[in-house]
Write a structure and sequence with these properties.
- The protein has 259 residues and is mainly alpha-helical.
- The chain folds into two domains: 88 residues, RNA polymerase sigma factor, region 2, helix turn helix motif (Rna Polymerase Sigma Factor, Chain: A, Orthogonal Bundle); 161 residues, Orthogonal Bundle (Arc Repressor Mutant, subunit A), CATH 1.10.10.10.
- It has eleven helices and two strands; from the N terminus they run H-H-H-H-H-H-H-E-E-H-H-H-H.
- It has a two-stranded antiparallel ribbon with strand order 1-2.
- Helix 9 packs across helix 11.
- The longest helix is centred in the C-terminal third of the chain and has 33 residues.
- The relative contact order is 0.10.
- The N terminus is likely disordered.
Length: 259
C-alpha cells in the first residue's frame, strides 16, 4: 500500500519540499545502517561520515527517480540507490593497494589448489603453510585485505599488465556481494560453492548475510572477537570467488560444447 507521500507523487509526478523532507527523515536510518554495514568491511581510514553523505545523495536520487507505478516500494528502491551511491563513492578512493589485490589472488589460488589436492576445504593453517606464512601472519593479511570484496565477488578483468581489477556484480536482493547470483542456475552454483566452505565460514556468512548481524554481533554468537570474524569472512569470500569462477567456467564451457 502506498503512503500518502507516494500517492501524492503518483498524482503530481513530483515530491514537494515538505514531502521530500519527511521522506528523508524516514529513510535516514536506512542510510546509516547500509553505510555502517559497508564500513565495517573497509580499512579504518575510510570515513563513515563520507559513506553516509554518499548514501544521502543516493536517497535523494531515489526520490527524484521513484515511480510508484512500477509496483516497487520506495524503501526497496531507495535501498538499491543508497548502496549504489556508496559503492560509487568508494571507486574514487585509493583504499585498496594493488599489492593487497595480489595477495588476495595468492590466497584465492592457494585455497583452490589445496581444495583440489585435499578434496575438502583447507584449514587456515594449511593455507598459511602453502603460502609460506606463519598462521598469525596469514590472519593479519586477511585483516588487511578486508574490504576488497566490497561490491564484487566474481569477475576479474586484466588491467595494467598483470594487475587485475574486480568488476562489480549487481546483487538485487540484499545488494551485498553474497547475493549476486539471482538466476536459478547461478543460485544453485552459489549454493554448491557455499556448501564446500568450512562449517565456521558457512556460519559466519549465514549470520552476517541472512540474519543481518553486525560483525561484532556475529563475534558474540561465535565467542570470538570482531576482528576474527572479519578474517573468517574475508577468507570465506576469497574461497567463494575461486569456487564460483571455477564452477561457472565449467558450466559455460559445457554450454558452449553443447551448442
Amino acid at each position: 500500500m502506498m503512503t500518502m507521500a507516494q500517492e501524492a507523487y503518483a498524482k503530481s509526478n513530483v515530491f514537494d519540499a515538505q514531502q521530500r523532507e519527511r521522506l528523508l527523515m524516514e529513510e535516514l536510518p536506512q542510510v546509516r545502517y547500509i553505510a555502517k554495514r559497508i564500513h565495517e568491511r573497509l580499512p579504518s581510514h575510510v570515513s563513515l561520515d563520507d559513506l553516509i553523505q554518499a548514501g544521502v545523495l543516493g536517497l535523494i536520487e531515489a526520490m527524484q527517480k521513484y515511480d510508484p507505478s512500477k509496483n516497487v516500494q520506495l524503501k526497496s528502491y531507495a535501498k538499491f540507490r543508497i548502496r549504489g551511491a556508496i559503492l560509487d563513492s568508494l571507486r574514487d578512493l585509493v583504499w585498496s593497494p594493488r599489492s593487497l589485490r595480489r595477495e588476495a589472488r595468492r590466497i584465492e589460488a592457494a585455497q583452490t589448489r589445496l581444495r583440489e589436492t585435499l578434496g575438502r576445504a583447507p584449514g587456515e593453517q594449511e593455507v598459511a603453510a602453502d603460502l609460506g606464512l606463519e598462521l598469525v601472519e596469514y590472519q593479519k593479511l586477511l585483516g588487511e585485505i578486508r574490504g576488497l570484496e566490497i561490491g564484487s565477488l566474481l569477475v576479474e578483468s586484466k588491467e595494467d599488465g598483470d594487475e587485475a581489477q574486480e568488476r562489480d556484480v549487481p546483487a538485487p536482493s540484499d545488494e551485498d556481494p553474497f547475493s549476486l547470483c539471482m538466476q536459478t542456475e547461478q543460485r544453485e552454483v552459489l549454493a554448491a560453492a557455499i556448501s564446500e566452505l568450512s562449517d565456521r565460514e558457512q556460519q559466519v556468512l549465514s549470520l552476517y548475510y541472512f540474519e543481518e548481524l553486525t560483525m561484532k554481533e556475529v563475534g558474540a554468537v561465535l565467542g570470538v572477537v570482531e576482528s576474527r570474524v572479519s578474517q573468517i569472512h574475508t577468507a570465506a569470500l576469497l574461497a567463494l570467488r575461486g569456487r564460483l569462477k571455477s564452477k561457472l567456467g565449467h558450466s559455460q564451457a559445457a554450454s558452449a560444447a553443447a551448442r
